[in-house]
Amino acid sequence: MPIITLSDLKLYLNMVATEEDKDPLLQQIINSANKGVESYCHRIFDEATLVDEEYDGTDSTILYLKRIPITAVSAVKYGYPTTIALVTVDSSWYGFGADYIYTDGRSGLIFELRPKYWKISFTGGYKQTQMPSDLILVTCELADLVYKDQQGRLGVTTRSMGGEVVESFIRQLSPMSQTLLDSYKRIAV
């Protein structure tokens, strides 16, 4: 499921839900905005269960995952299946937080710095009904900028003030939205 849906964007754009003539264009914009936010944050936000997702090591006891929040970890493995059999780490040697897994330190296990060496099986991400409202708002703002570009009005915002129509130009996310989006960025170690 995407971060925002058609109904989210129509609500943000103050469109009537029954206006369907622009739905195909809006859906393309939604897909673009969702991918743009995920790309910027280096994360995927919708919930899924992943098996043996590959990660590079960090040479530390912490490994940040791409799909948050993490709700369950079923297996941590390491090795290259083409050269040796994968080794499964004992589940008592690791735990997880909202966006990372960690080793207990006592086992001596660290996430060795090797490309695609770690295979993590876990469930993470948000259900559509639990997507954070600030993330929905920022993604809608980005989609709105793209929509205005499609309408030839990129960055133009109009408001009535005292009977006069005032136009202003916005070409990027608001500073508040940028700060909110930055808080979701995946930490790369």
Describe the overall structure.
This protein is α+β, with helices and mostly antiparallel strands and 189 residues long. It has helices at residues 6-12, 23-41, 133-150, 175-182, and strands spanning 48-55, 62-64, 70-78, 87-88, 94-96, 100-103, 118-124, 156-161, 164-169. The strands form 3 sheets. It has a 4-stranded antiparallel beta sheet with strand order 1-7-3-4, with no helix packed on it. Strand 3 and strand 4 (87-88) form a beta hairpin. Helix 3 (133-150) crosses helix 4 (175-182).
Count of helical regions: 4
| Class computed from helices, strands and strand pairing | alpha+beta
* Strand residues, percent: 25-35%
How are strands sequenced across the largest beta sheet? 1-7-3-4
Q: Overall mean pLDDT score?
A: 86
Termini Cα gap: 28 Å
Task: Encode the helix/strand succession as letters.
Answer: HHEEEEEEEHEEH
Largest sheet: 4 strands, antiparallel
**Strands, count:** 9
Shape: elongated
The portion of residues assigned to helices is 25-40%
Rg estimate, integer Å: 21 Å
Low-confidence stretches: 152-156
Give the structure's gist in a few sentences.
This protein is α+β, with helices and mostly antiparallel strands and 189 residues long. The chain has helices at residues 6-12, 23-41, 133-150, 175-182, and strands spanning 48-55, 62-64, 70-78, 87-88, 94-96, 100-103, 118-124, 156-161, 164-169.
